[in-house]
Specification:
Number of helices: 28
InterPro entries: ComA-like_MBL (IPR035681), ComEC_N (IPR004477), Competence_ComEC/Rec2 (IPR004797), Competence_DNA_uptake (IPR052159), Metallo-B-lactamas (IPR001279), RibonucZ/Hydroxyglut_hydro (IPR036866)
Shape: globular
Helix content: 40-55%
Subcellular location: Cell membrane
Main location: membrane
Membrane topology: Multi-pass membrane protein
Strand order of the largest sheet: 9-10-11-13-15-16
Distance between the termini: 75 Å
Keywords: Cell membrane, Membrane, Transmembrane, Transmembrane helix
Largest sheet: 6 strands, mixed
Number of strands: 22
Number of domains: 5
Length: about 775
């Protein structure tokens, strides 16, 4: 481990005496800025041909006068602008060709009519398990590139990507294998790389690829999986995932802990793996005295072999490219070439697969690589200067993940609400363990080809290191205050990005301030640290209030009601308010760290906008939504949060219910997926917990509350409630006589101070 760290340190620091940062040449942005502009245009365009063809034509028309202007006045801005227009034209034209090619043939039209057809093609994304919507057995998904479609005895050659959802039969297919499926086609809402889907096909046949290289790669993957069979559960799941991207054996608890601590990138093939493959190959070539001229070619061969074994889909190719560039970027002799190489990689990868333009994984890879290229070397030097000589080898192990994390943070906010402060120490603690797992796992996989018994013994070395990573993930996942709430969505990410840029530009001033403080003694420095920690990290809520069954959170204008069964694990939150900070603080005060369900009665912002504060640092088992509200369209923010936190979504209508440890929740309204208005599409719920009965009316108005009154009267529940949550923040627009007929002991109105709806009740 220390030897690998020394290699990385040597790459980060020049063998000669370190030059002053003031004399260091600025990063070359001449190609990087045009590449980012072209990428942004392609992402905004779709990439659907109807948009990309327009963008290509516009950029082509503008590029000609820009080139003329550049010839007359060759200024840096003119050069960057011209390159940006040319890059945009090339990417958009390529994307247009890709999209027209994938939509050619009968599949798009057949998918609209749900026609049944037989498809034959190659697997281009390895099958993975996904949650089943109705719980009817395991479900797996894979992407296939259809080469032939047969419909009504007519066979047509095509080149169309189709996503397949099938049972365990799909697990027998590997990347590059040919499969034949027969089933009903379904259209895919844009934007999506796949043109159509086939769910649970009637027939599925797998034909293994005759390519001997792919056969050996499959054997290597199987050998590594078998070699790790005797390891503890977490190690058995992590080693294949970290080495070859095989996450099939990871437990749900480990996946959740890795996600909560910002370590998810370790359980997939990333640029870090490729970096260590290159470093390991360089170490071996130096050890055996390989000529310098041969080393680059053998390094490329090592990466290519690794890519084939890890499956050469788009994500692995992206990781290989970025990992190679990242290593070039921290090299003392090649640093100037790293940023232009990154720009070229962006253009090449987007030309190869235009759908990467909208991929969060691609954005995170680019940002992480840019962070390493721009900051890792200088930060490593600064950290090394502050460390004792015998600990300076730790500097790059801290600087590299820190630089990547800082650059990725704004995009991570789009995926996971809240700022994961705990991810920085988690990545720093696990950084020294990634190389042993990667290189040890590769050696184990190679040994499994010849000596399976030796491979099983060798697997314990990466296995022990993987166990240490799992220990860090599980340990830090339960640290209070590890995730600080932050506004979700583009606005929150944009604000954080601006703050990050300001912090990076003002870093020297902050450092001078810290030096001044430290000169006045350790106590002053410790006091500053404690003050900053107190401001940035909220104190945990301890055990929270005890003995409660129902609570209404003060979230200002909006609803956020909490009902608890026998214990905290049977707690349900109904609506979230609009402020993530307020709902997070309320749940902390109640001691709620686990929610059996979060119910969103409808999609008004004062009922759902606080969801990011709910899921930050908490386990949420399911998200329950109104079927009527869902029919009107789910906000993109809700979908993004649910997907990033891997929370399954359930649609409820009248009669839907859930039972969790003494808590029973039942839906009284809506009757169907159709409603006259958004408010009348609200879920109306009854809750029973510990002998207490609660009626939660959401924002239901006259039509809905009249139907609720009739339903309760028909079932004999009309006067049986102890607590009623008054509808629509105290609005008078409810069925006449509703509250007098309910005869509840307590009425709860959740309303903002400036909202006038509560006054209407006085009428």
């Amino acid at each position: 481990m220390r030897a690998v760290a020394s290699l990385l340190l040597n790459a980060l620091r020049d063998k000669r005496e370190k030059t002053s940062s003031a004399t260091e040449l600025p990063a070359d942005l001449r190609l990087f800025i045009p590449a980012v502009i072209a990428w942004s245009v392609l992402a905004a365009a779709g990439p659907h041909w109807s948009f990309t063809i327009g963008a290509a034509l516009i950029s082509a028309l503008l590029a000609l006068p820009a080139a003329v202007f550049l010839c007359r006045r060759p200024t840096p801005i003119a050069r960057i602008g011209t390159l940006a227009l040319i890059a945009t034209f090339v990417l958009c034209a390529t994307a247009t060709a890709h999209d027209l090619r994938r939509q050619a043939g009968p599949i798009p039209d057949l998918a609209v009519t749900h026609a049944t057809a037989a498809l034959t093609g190659r697997i281009t994304e390895e099958p993975r398990q996904v949650p089943s919507a109705n719980g009817s057995g395991a479900l797996y998904v894979a992407l296939m590139n259809v080469e032939t479609i047969e419909h009504h005895a007519l066979s047509t050659p095509v080149a169309t990507p189709v996503r397949i959802f099938a049972d365990h039969r799909l697990t027998h297919a590997n990347w590059g294998d040919t499969i034949t499926v027969r089933g009903a086609l379904r259209a895919v809402p844009a934007p999506d790389k796949a043109v159509a889907t086939v769910s649970r096909p009637n027939a599925l046949q797998v034909h293994p690829s005759p390519n001997p290289i792919l056969a050996v790669a499959t054997h290597v993957r199987t050998g590594l999986s078998q070699a790790t069979h005797a390891l503890p559960d977490d190690a058995r799941g992590l080693v294949p995932a970290m080495v070859l991207g095989d996450r099939s054996q990871q437990s749900s608890s480990l996946v959740e802990a890795m996600r909560d601590t910002g370590l998810t990138h370790l359980s997939a093939v990333s640029g870090t793996n490729v970096t260590y493959v290159l470093l390991g190959a360089a170490f071996l070539m130096r050890l055996i005295g390989m000529p310098r001229r041969v080393r680059p070619f053998l390094g490329v061969a090592a990466v290519a072999l690794f890519v084939v074994v890890a499956r050469p889909d788009a994500s692995v190719l992206r990781a290989a490219t970025m990992g190679t560039i990242g290593l070039v970027g921290v090299s003392a002799s090649r640093r100037g070439a790293a940023l232009p190489a990154l720009a070229a990689a962006i253009l090449v990868l987007l030309g190869f697969d235009p759908w990467l333009a909208r991929s969060y994984g691609f954005a995170l890879s680019v940002l992480a690589t840019a962070g390493i290229v721009l900051f890792a070397r200088s930060w490593s030097d600064e950290i090394a200067d502050e460390l004792p000589r015998f600990l300076r080898w730790l500097a790059p192990l801290v600087a590299v993940p820190l630089a990547a994390q800082v650059m990725c943070a704004p995009v991570l906010l789009l995926l996971s609400p809240g700022i994961q402060l705990i991810s920085i120490p988690a990545n720093v603690l696990t950084a020294p363990l990634v190389a042993p797992v990667t290189l040890g796992g590769i050696f184990t996989a190679a040994a499994s080809l010849v000596f399976p018994s030796l491979a099983a013994l060798c697997a314990w070395f990466p296995g022990v290191c993987a166990l240490a990573i799992a220990f860090v993930a599980h340990g830090l996942a339960v640290v209070p205050g590890g995730t600080v709430p932050w506004p979700a969505g583009g606005w929150g990410a944009g604000v954080f990005a601006v703050l990050t840029v300001v912090a990076l530009f003002t870093a020297p001033a902050w450092r001078r301030l810290l030096e001044v403080v430290c000169r006045h003694g350790v106590f002053a420095g410790a006091s500053l640290f404690v003050a900053l920690f107190a401001v940035c990290v909220p104190l945990p809520g301890g055990q929270g209030a005890q003995g409660w069954k129902f609570a209404a959170c003060d979230v200002g204008q909006g609803d956020a009601l909490v009902v608890r069964g026998d214990d905290h694990a049977s707690t349900v939150l109904v609506d979230t308010g609009r402020d993530p900070w307020l709902i997070d603080a309320c749940l902390d005060a109640l001691g709620v760290q686990h929610l059996a369900a979060v119910v969103l009665t409808h999609y008004d912002s004062d009922h759902v906008a606080g969801l990011s504060g709910v899921v930050a640092g908490r386990k949420v088992e399911r998200l329950v939504v109104s079927a009527a509200a869902e029919a009107r369209g789910r906000p993109a923010q809700i979908t993004r949060i649910a997907q990033s936190a891997q929370i399954p979504v359930e649609k409820w209508v009248m009669g839907s219910e859930g039972v969790w440890g003494g808590l029973r929740l039942r839906t009284v309204w809506p009757r169907s997926e159709h409603s006259a208005s958004s408010n009348d599409g609200s879920l109306v719920l009854t809750a029973e917990a510990g002998g207490m009965r609660v009626l939660l009316l959401g924002d239901a108005e006259e039509l809905a509350t009249a139907a609720v009154r009739r339903a309760l009267e028909g079932s004999g529940q009309l006067g049986s409630f102890d607590v009623v949550k008054v509808s629509h923040h105290g609005s008078a627009h409810v069925a006449a006589g509703l509250y007098s007929d309910l005869r509840a002991v307590v009425a709860v109105i959740s309303v903002g101070r400036r909202t006038l709806m509560g006054i209407q009740l006085r009428r």
